[in-house]
Amino acid sequence: MRSLFRSAILFAAVATVWPLTAQAQSGFTFTPAPPATEEATPEPANSAIIGLGSFERRITLLPQGLLWRPPIANPEEPRSYMKLYQSLDTEEFPSVNDCAIGGTLPVVRFSRIETPNEGMQVDVFAVAFSRFVDIRTFAAVDYRFGVPFTYAIGKWSFKVAYEHTSCHVGDELLIKDDLPSKDSTRNETVFAISYRVVDALRVYGQFGWAWQQSSFVQDIDKYRYVIGAEWSKPGPTGVWGQPFAAIDCEFRGDEDYTPNVTAQIGWEWSRQKYNPGLRIALEYYDGRSPFGQFIDRHESWVALGVFLDL
Length: 310
Description:
With about 300 residues, the chain is mainly beta. About 10% of the residues lie in helices and about 50% in strands.
């Protein structure tokens, strides 16, 4: 278990820092396009023009930013965070600290010459979510990885993805409380759509179909639905940052479609248009536990968190 955990953490860390490393290597090239004229925008070193005439397209390896922005408030999205204090006021978990390490790596983008920030993109993501009881006891860990195929045009963005989730009880909690380790894995295809009503207001919906699922919960449905909205103005924020707010609601078949509501309000700093960098937020959660080994339990908390999206 510990070796699997270390491997997932290493992979998630690589997924987080690789784009920054790749962009810093000035020697990296991929059949660069001809030098730009005064009227044209210079081609980045990691892109090339393919096709002929009106069918020319730009292909970019390790592009900057994502065409599908992971919803800010959804607790299952790949990002790194630390929630500084959560009081659940339950006998088993009087207070917990949840943390995660992970991110999304943009792999390749296909776009029109005149609209480099629209088109199709392939990403990969990996993330490990961990829970500690009173900081000392390792209680749970969930691993997620996936391959999203995304598309953006105008105010719309779309996602079709394969996503895998594997949930485990922490070794220390197994030993301390003599708990059984329950089977909990999910392989699903996820469809998502979002629309920017105005520049700062985005609404979205997601649908997941778990075509392979194992769970200790009996007679489960294989579907999950997510709806949400967020107020976060895209673009570089500068050193002072800007406020944001987001709400997310998820309904899962293996939880009898009990609503899991997450709301965040806070301050964010960003260097890219559609990828928030650092966020400090006050988070409210009410619903079934976000950790797969405890989805039969209700949890509610208010926590202060630090979130990092790369």
